[in-house]
Amino acid sequence: MMKRLYTIIEVADELNISVHEVYELIKSKELKGIKLGSIKILKSELLKYKDKKS
């Protein structure tokens, strides 16, 4: 099964940015996150953000 939700740390690693920068992307609404205990990022949202930046 493919992973569909990513932690903040996993997104930071995937985008090669800091955890703080991931939180800033979420805060600025450039990247959509959902709170399920801790914030998670849907794979579709991560791919959408990466496409927009490339």
Q: Number of helical segments? A: 3
Strand order of the largest sheet: 1-3-2
**Amino-to-carboxy terminus distance:** 27 Å
Q: Into which percent range does the helicity of residues fall?
A: 40-55%
Structural class: alpha+beta
Number of strands: 3
Tell me what the structure shows:
This protein is α+β, with helices and mostly antiparallel strands and 54 residues long. The protein has one domain (5-53). Helix content is 52%, strand content 20%. The protein has helices spanning 8-15, 19-27, 43-53, and strands at residues 5-7, 34-36, 38-42. Strands 1-3-2 form a 3-stranded antiparallel beta sheet. A hairpin with a 1-residue loop joins strand 2 and strand 3. Helix 1 (8-15) crosses helix 2 (19-27). The longest helix is centred in the C-terminal third of the chain and has 11 residues, at 43-53. The chain is globular and about 25 Å long. It starts with a strand and ends with a helix.
Task: Report a brief summary of the structure.
The chain is 52% helix and 20% strand.
Blueprint (SSEs and pairs):
Blueprint: E1 5-7, H1 8-15, H2 19-27, E2 34-36, E3 38-42, H3 43-53
Antiparallel strand pairs: 1-3, 2-3
Main attributes?
54 residues, alpha+beta, three-stranded antiparallel sheet, 3 helices, 3 strands, globular
